[in-house]
Amino acid sequence: MAQNGLTPVSLGRHGHRFWRRFTSFDFARTMADCPVVEAEILQAAATFPITFRKSEHGFYPVAVLSMQSDQPTPFVSAHGKWLATYVPSVLRCAPFRPRLIEPDGDGRDELLVDETAELITDNPEDETFFDKSGQLAPELKKVAAFFRALKKSMKYTTHLCRVLADMGLFGPLTTFQGVEFPSGHFGVTQNALEKIPRAHLSLLTSNGGLRLIHAHQISLTHSIWLTHAHARAHREADGSLTQQTTGVSGFLDALVAAQQKEEAMDHCRQEGHHAFL
Fold first, then answer.
1. Rounded Cα distance, 89 and 43, in Å
2. Which of 58, 19, 68 is nearest to 35 (CA)?
3. Which is the most buried residue in 35, 122, 135, 230, by most CB within 10 A?
4. Would residue 139 count as lying in a domain?
5. Into how many domains does the chain fold?
6. Which domain of life is it from (predicted)?
7. What pTM value is reported for the model?
8. What is the rounded distance in angstroms from the CA atom of residue 62 to the CA atom of residue 49?
């Protein structure tokens, strides 16, 4: 059994089993954070606080989904709907997850499956894990290919983090503008960045490290909203807010609708039409 209850996909264990595509983000409700890669850092930073975690293999960036380890994320509704405007790559293929934070191995166990997600079945009408020749079935091959690309991006991301660590830029992140972070988060302060030699700054500009740092620093403002979202959820649970008060879900639904409207307007512009609010 892999860490976090995830199990490597294998012919012996899953050769006669089946899986269903997820229709709910309930599996992410209790996640406090999830890894993100450099290729998606701008989209993720526009939605979530981006901080850094440290494993035995080094630092890596995460999207913070909850500021309180014992509280569910406000980004998943009571009905399992994803409410944020961006879905981190690692969450897009449930019940499967890639092995991202370990050093490169032989690749046989890079595809992990959450057997507790109730998406693993014995129903032949669902998707197969393997074909008759013992190879990954076509749909699962697509998932594996997506995860290989994601793992490649994470490899570069952890390389950037290693460069930042070697420059002494990481430090414990405990608070931001009065908001307390759970233990185990790290960040890069502007003060630390300003103290590095000019040659280091030039390297970070050319290799993407500076973009990663700035995305992280700017994204921390989301921690304030996220803390307010938790407080609102507490008050709603206590019945102290009226039904007429716009809740967190309504606010996030509005953000999604606004983004969809903007995308539709962009499409119209590309077609040479005029769009009006």
1. 11
2. 58
3. 35
4. yes
5. 1
6. Bacteria
7. 0.81
8. 8
Owning domain of residue 240: 3-154+162-267
CA-CA-CA-CA dihedral for 41, 164, 58, 31, to nearest 10: -30
Residue 14 near residue 183 (C-beta atoms within 8 A)? no
Rounded Cα distance between 3 and 5, Å, is 5
63 in any annotated domain: yes
Tell me the pLDDT tens digit for each residue of 43-86.
999 999 999 999 998 999 999 999 987 889 999 999 999 999 99
Q: Is 59 strand, coil or helix? A: strand
**Gap between the Cα atoms of 201 and 42, Å rounded:** 20
Q: Give the integer Cα–Cα distance in Å for 237 and 231.
A: 10
What is the distance between the alpha carbons of residues 180 and 33, in angstroms, rounded to a whole number? 15
- The answer for residues whose C-beta is within 8 angstroms of residue 30's C-beta and 6 or more apart is 72, 73
Instruction: Name residues whose C-beta falls within 8 Å of residue 164's C-beta, 6 or more positions apart in sequence.
Output: 59, 170, 188, 204, 209, 212, 213
Kindly state whether residue 273 falls inside one of the protein's structural domains.
Answer: no
CA separation for the pair 171, 164 (Å, rounded): 11
Q: Helices 209-219 and 198-207, interaxial angle, to 10°? A: 90
